Amino acid sequence: MKSENILNVTELLILQELMNIAFGSASADLEEVLDISIDLKVPAAEMVPVTKLKKYIQESMALTNKSSMVEEKFWGDFNGSAILVFPVEIQKNIISLLSAHDYPATDMEHIEGMDSGVLLEIGNILIGACIGKISELLNTVVTYSPPSIGSGSSSDLDFFIDKFEQPSSAIILKMEFSFHQKHLNGKIMIITSYNSINWLKKSLKLFMESYE
Length: 212
Hints:
Blueprint: H1 9-34, E1 38-40, E2 44-49, H2 53-60, E3 68-76, E4 80-86, H3 91-96, H4 108-111, H5 114-137, E5 142-144, E6 148-150, H6 154-161, E7 169-179, E8 185-192, H7 197-209
Antiparallel strand pairs: 1-7, 2-7, 3-4, 3-5, 3-6, 4-8, 7-8
Helix pairs in contact: 1-5
């Protein structure tokens, strides 16, 4: 791949810092809704060939058929898809985020199905705020598709990856997080398409120049 068609180490580090700022802002928005703090890990930014994207997502997001995944697509100069993953079964824990008390097991029959709605709302807040902040920092705007929910199944991933051009590389931004004092960990990954690279390189350069 030609050097002008990839992001160099410096550009990836800048993107990593933008992800750090953006997800910090997004988690603050969610904390206002749930009244619970979110612990963040150091974000990562890298490029992955689309041919290896499925395996990369499965491994780095710890996906299984029992995972819960929210996907939201975005368009503009900055375009691609974002996925929010909870790598384990989440029914009881995700609902308990809305209450100061955990639901007893006997109440699960009354809340089955609510977890999907709560997960979509959490995904919508985190993904929308995160993508929105990155776009703001890079002086552009994006539009979104409605979020959709799936699992870590092979068919869900095939449908997701088919949206990206082959052969090419995807730009990956990812962050791990957990809800403080709750047994619930999650990961968010922003995957932007190959045709955003030229715009990203120019925008990252302008972003850095604004601080010189």
